């Protein structure tokens, strides 16, 4: 199992609860989701239906986001949002329960945008408190809190790997918590102008997770200019042993065509090398 399919950005032509089965039918054994509910504490029946969709599809839920607010409206997390601290903390118990039921280990906590009129240091203090609580909760099920740099949101303060790692290091220094790690989304890092190759050289063995999309466009591998294959290979050489999340935009009919093209190219190269 090499890839996990992010079913919040792929297969979106289908109802959410049908996407795990569609990923399985496409040949994948693992999926991940952004927060799949509209509230931090959904109804028990909603949670049960989500868990059943994963189990019935026969896939592993490898990753789940904490509630990040209204993403289509521009929200990018509740972690550092003082007015919604209780909402985030209430969400921790639900996330942990789903993770325990499905054996999920990776939990992405989007940091949150800067809020106009609130001291950034005050927001950061709230974020540290919330991350400490989240890390303690998921540690009970062997989970890791993932911190992700994000592009395309001017008010989001974590844009580079170094900025995300500073938050992780701060939590570790304050509490000794060891179950926080960088979510290395190669698309977001590249789009923000970070030196992805250097980040890999310095930190690959510590990556908590890798997500990919090509740039520009956030499309499937091969639609842009990023050397994704080389970056993934180097990350593995340096110690990253986890899955690669497919978190790009593509129509359902052609979403995974690049994998067949890539396999054919490798076969051709092998045959030419042997001749």
Describe this structure in words.
- This protein is an alpha/beta fold and about 280 residues long.
- It has a single domain, classed as Divalent-metal-dependent TIM barrel enzymes (TIM Barrel, Alpha-Beta Barrel), CATH 3.20.20.
- About 40% of the residues lie in helices and about 10% in strands.
- The chain contains 9 helices and 8 strands.
- It has helices at about 20-25, 45-55, 85-100, 120-140, 160-175, 185-190, 195-205, 230-235, 255-275; strands spanning about 5, 30-35, 60-65, 105-110, 145, 180-185, 210, 245.
- The protein has an 8-stranded parallel β-barrel, surrounded by 4 helices.
- α5 (about 160-175) links the parallel β5 (about 145) and β6.
- α1 runs parallel beside α2 and α3 runs parallel beside α4 (about 120-140).
- The longest helix has 20 residues, at about 120-140.
- It is globular.
- The two termini are about 30 Å apart.
- Mean pLDDT is about 95; it is low at about 265-270.
What letter string, H or E per element, gives the SSE order?
A: EHEHEHEHEHEHHEHEH
Find the CATH superfamily: Divalent-metal-dependent TIM barrel enzymes
Number of domains: 1
Radius of gyration: 18 Å
Q: Low-confidence parts, pLDDT < 50 over ≥5 residues?
A: 265-272
Give the class-level CATH name. Answer: Alpha Beta
The CATH topology is what? TIM Barrel
Largest sheet: 8 strands, parallel, barrel
Mean pLDDT: 95
Defining traits:
275 residues, single chain, TIM Barrel, alpha/beta
Care to give the gist of this entry?
This protein is of the alpha/beta class. The chain has a single domain, classed as TIM Barrel, CATH 3.20.20. The chain has helices at residues 19-25, 44-57, 85-102, 120-139, 161-175, 186-191, 196-203, 228-237, 257-274, and strands at residues 3-6, 30-33, 60-65, 106-108, 144-147, 180-185, 209-212, 244-246.
């Amino acid at each position: 199992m090499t890839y996990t399919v992010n079913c919040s950005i792929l297969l979106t032509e289908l109802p959410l609860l049908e996407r795990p089965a569609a990923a399985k039918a496409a040949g994948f054994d693992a999926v991940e989701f952004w927060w799949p509910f509209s509230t931090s504490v959904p109804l028990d029946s909603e949670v049960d239906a989500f868990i059943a969709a994963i189990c019935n599809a026969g896939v592993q839920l490898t990753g789940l986001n904490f509630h990040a607010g209204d993403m289509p409206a521009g929200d990018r997390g509740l972690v550092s949002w003082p007015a919604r601290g209780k909402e985030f903390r209430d969400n921790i118990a639900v996330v942990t329960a789903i993770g325990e039921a499905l054996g999920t280990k990776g939990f992405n906590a989007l940091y949150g945008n800067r809020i106009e009129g609130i001291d950034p240091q005050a927001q950061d203090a709230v974020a540290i408190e919330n991350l400490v609580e989240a890390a303690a909760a998921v540690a009970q099920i062997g989970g890791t809190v993932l911190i992700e740099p994000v592009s395309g949101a001017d008010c989001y303060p974590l844009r580079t790997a170094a900025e995300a790692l500073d938050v992780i290091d701060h939590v570790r220094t304050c509490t000794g918590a060891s179950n926080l790690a960088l979510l290395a989304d190669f698309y977001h890092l590249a789009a923000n102008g970070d030196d992805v190759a250097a980040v890999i050289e310095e930190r690959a063995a510590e990556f908590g997770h890798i997500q990919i999309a090509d740039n520009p466009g956030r499309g499937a591998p091969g639609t842009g200019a990023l050397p994704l294959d080389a970056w993934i290979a180097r990350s593995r050489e340096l110690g990253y042993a986890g899955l690669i999340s497919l978190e790009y935009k593509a129509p359902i009919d052609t979403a995974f065509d690049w994998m067949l093209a890539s396999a054919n190219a490798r076969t051709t190269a092998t045959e030419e090398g042997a001749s």
